[in-house]
């Protein structure tokens, strides 16, 4: 009987050790997700701040391409209207709406870059080249920030769906929910068509 009680005690101690070594994983990972999302938004903001300068420069050289420039300006304005908070990351509808606005902006910027191909004198402008380089760098930064966010969400969601994280979350953090991650739209998955 004494050996049985010792065995039960060891099992209970092992279970408690498992819980106490993993108890802070869920909030730690949740904070990592929020931090990575903030970085994604930071890069989106950088892009949104850069676009008016790009548009102003392009307007000076391609006055007759106003429709493309208007699309870029409108897409940027639509992105500015949506502010997705970290708490909303668990809401697929809001997350999808935010991503659609960002996708529309990316699409408009792609069309703007095609305008550049049509006007060699526009490409030769030093200001435009500098801004184009900044925009390309910003898009790369957004891609890296998204990649980091996706990985952080993967780790967080895995913690909520596997043992012992699932048990710990259900007991200590019942408000913890699976987070949304990025998905490319069908249009974004298609290769862009460049015509000269």
What can you see in these coordinates?
The protein has 196 residues and is mainly α. The chain has one domain. 79% of the residues lie in helices and 0% in strands. The chain is built from eight helices and no strands. The protein has helices at 2-22, 25-61, 66-81, 92-118, 120-124, 126-161, 165-172, 186-189. Helix 2 (25-61) packs antiparallel against helix 6 (126-161) and helix 6 (126-161) packs across helix 7 (165-172). It is elongated, with a radius of gyration of 24 Å.
Task: Write a compact overview of the structure shown.
By secondary structure, the chain is an all-alpha fold. It contains 8 helices and no strands.
Topology as a string of helices (H) and strands (E)? HHHHHHHH
Q: Give the % helix.
A: over 70%
Mean pLDDT over the residues: 78
Cα radius of gyration in angstroms: 24 Å
Number of strands: 0
What is the total number of structural domains? 1
Give the CA-based shape.
elongated
Beta strand %: under 5%
SS content category: mainly alpha
| Oligomeric description of these chains | single chain
Distance between the termini: 86 Å
Sheet bearing the most strands, described? none
The count of helical stretches stands at 8
> Which parts are unreliable, with pLDDT below 50 for 5 consecutive residues or more?
none
